């Protein structure tokens, strides 16, 4: 097992280049199942989750080649349609294979993802929409067995805007018979990036980025010649929080402020100076961090995937703040670890009241989920009186490409060690 060691107290300055977005690369990789031929994708991040979906798809017969940062994928010969439990349990987003497999082969056997640390994370809305499209599904031994002769277009209303639900049904609908309309659809930039890829394959999709997406089924699709995955707005937000926490000045290359309005607004409210540049954003942290309330919401609201990181910032703010988590029912697991570092946080239902303090104290802590581990690294950057050890950082490696190297380049005293 590996751990990350941090000696906090340093101001971070310099330039960081943001990697491709995990939550765009995952559905886009799954979409390559929809048609044969060689697809070529740039800026696919080197992450555990990408390795996992590649493992699952390779077992199905999909061929992957990587050269000079380009990931080429060929789905000419898909021999299997199963996503096994031992891999799905490590990455719930494997459910994104369901839609493409049904569109391509008319059948799929996917392990139910099961819950995860941050919540039950049901997939009922995915399944309800697929049933409306004519899919027969049975649940046996923890697996969804799905079959359909020909997917039919349907009118789908999502009770809750679900990101992977929207993506799954978009992919199922691109070759369905007739028109599919998704209402109360997710509007995340990663949904738009998937729609761009599907259009490059020849799909007829309109309305992505709004709450109503219309897909008209087509007979054939072709391989994607070239696509550059959008950059990761959650990684960008994580580094912006680091600048705010350490009072540093960081140029964030490659991110787009248009995708980060809610985050930029909150960072300006804590006193950071955020400016757009030709190649991204520049952020200068304040001398003292003001406390600010946040409430996580579906896009374009404040992203739940930055809630833990912003909480670490509020732990060293002046005054108190209220952090409200409205998306997942158990996304405060990082609180007890932050408390071990001296943070003053009280949980009441889906709200955390954070009373800021001068600094945190270094301690051994344990990562429990992807974004919680990022918040512990951030807390370690400002923790004094020793070294912070973040254990179980396999969680971190699921969603951040070489995080400690990027922080080291910005001046942090941080390294990875085998525990
Ligand atoms: C996606 O998860 C992201 N993952 C998550 O990022 C992100 O936190 C989440 O969207 C919300 O933005 C990927 O894109 C791979 P949802 P997803 O379906 O699609 C409920 C990270 O750290 N719901 O939008 O699984 C659900 O319980 C990860 O990168 C149902 O009730 O989330 C939640 O309360 C963590 N039934 C809400 O909807 C369903 O069928 C939003 O979930 C589906 C969802």
Look at the structure and name the CATH superfamily of the largest domain: Enolpyruvate transferase domain
Structural class: alpha/beta
What general outline do the C-alpha atoms trace? elongated
Bound molecules: ligand EPZ
State the CATH architecture of the largest domain.
Answer: Alpha-beta prism
Number of domains: 2
Biggest sheet: strands, sense, closure? 4 strands, mixed
Q: What number is the mean pLDDT?
A: 96
Individual helix count: 14
Uncertain stretches of 5 or more adjacent residues:
none
Q: Helix amount, in percent?
A: 25-40%
Instruction: Indicate the radius of gyration in whole angstroms.
Output: 21 Å
Count of DSSP strands: 26
Query: What is CATH's topology name of the largest domain?
Result: UDP-n-acetylglucosamine1-carboxyvinyl-transferase, Chain
Strand fraction: 25-35%
Instruction: State the strand order across the main sheet.
Output: 23-25-1-26
Distance between the termini: 5 Å
CATH class bucket of the largest domain: Alpha Beta
Considering the chains and any ligands shown, give keywords for the structure:
single chain, 419 residues, UDP-n-acetylglucosamine1-carboxyvinyl-transferase, Chain, 2 domains, four-stranded mixed β-sheet, 14 helices, elongated, binds ligand EPZ
Question: What's the arrangement of secondary structure elements?
Answer:
Elements: E1 2-7, E2 13-17, H1 22-31, E3 38-42, H2 48-60, E4 63-67, E5 70-74, E6 82-83, H3 85-88, H4 98-104, E7 107-111, H5 124-132, E8 136-140, E9 143-147, E10 155-157, H6 163-173, E11 179-183, H7 189-201, E12 204-206, E13 212-216, E14 227-228, H8 233-246, E15 249-253, H9 261-269, E16 273-277, E17 280-284, E18 294-295, H10 307-314, E19 320-324, H11 334-340, E20 344-348, E21 351-355, E22 360-361, E23 364-366, H12 370-382, E24 383-384, E25 388-391, H13 394-399, H14 403-409, E26 413-418
Parallel strand pairs: 2-15, 3-14, 6-7, 10-11, 18-19, 22-24, 23-25
Antiparallel strand pairs: 1-25, 1-26, 3-5, 4-5, 7-9, 8-9, 11-13, 12-13, 15-17, 16-17, 19-21, 20-21
Ligand EPZ binds at residues 22-23, 26, 93, 119, 121-126, 160, 162-165, 186, 304-305, 327-328, 370-371, 399.
């Amino acid at each position: 097992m590996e751990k990350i060691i941090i000696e906090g107290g340093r101001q971070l300055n310099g330039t960081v280049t943001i990697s491709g977005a995990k939550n765009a690369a995952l559905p886009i990789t799954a979409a390559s199942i929809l048609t044969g031929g060689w697809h070529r994708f740039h800026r696919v991040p080197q992450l555990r989750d990408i390795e996992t979906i590649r493992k699952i798809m390779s077992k199905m017969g999909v061929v992957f080649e990587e050269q000079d940062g380009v990931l080429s994928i060929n789905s000419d010969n898909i021999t299997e349609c199963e996503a096994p439990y031992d891999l799905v349990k490590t990455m719930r987003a494997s459910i994104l294979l369901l839609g493409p497999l049904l569109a391509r082969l008319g059948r799929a056997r996917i392990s139910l993802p099961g819950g995860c640390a941050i919540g039950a994370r049901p997939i009922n809305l995915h399944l309800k929409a697929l049933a409306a499209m004519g899919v027969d599904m049975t649940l046996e031994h923890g697996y969804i067995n799905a079959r359909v002769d020909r997917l039919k277009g349907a009118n789908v209303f999502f009770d809750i805007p679900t990101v992977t639900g929207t993506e799954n049904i978009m992919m199922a609908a691109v070759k369905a018979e007739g028109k599919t309309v998704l209402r109360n659809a997710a509007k995340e930039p990663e949904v738009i990036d998937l729609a761009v890829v599907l259009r490059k394959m020849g799909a007829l999709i309109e309305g992505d980025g709004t709450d109503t997406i219309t897909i008209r089924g087509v007979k054939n699709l072709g391989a994607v010649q070239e696509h550059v995955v959008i950059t990761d707005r959650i990684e960008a937000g994580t580094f912006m929080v680091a600048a705010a926490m350490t009072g540093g000045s960081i140029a964030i290359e490659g991110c787009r402020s248009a995708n980060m309005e809610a985050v930029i607004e909150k960072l300006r409210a804590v006193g950071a100076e955020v400016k757009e540049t030709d190649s991204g954003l520049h952020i200068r942290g304040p001398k003292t961090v003001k406390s600010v309330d946040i409430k996580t919401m579906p896009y374009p609201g404040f992203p739940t995937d930055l809630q833990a990181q912003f909480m670490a910032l509020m732990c060293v703010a002046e005054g108190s703040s209220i952090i409200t988590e409205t998306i997942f029912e158990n996304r405060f697991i990082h609180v007890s670890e932050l408390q071990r570092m001296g943070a003053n946080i009280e949980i009441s239902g889906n709200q955390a009241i954070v009373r800021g303090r001068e600094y945190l104290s270094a301690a051994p802590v344990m990562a429990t989920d992807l974004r919680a581990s990022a918040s512990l690294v951030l807390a370690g950057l400002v923790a004094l009186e020793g070294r912070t050890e973040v254990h179980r950082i396999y969680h971190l490696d699921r969603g951040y490409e070489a995080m400690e190297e990027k922080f080291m380049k910005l001046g942090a005293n941080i390294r990875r060690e085998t525990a």
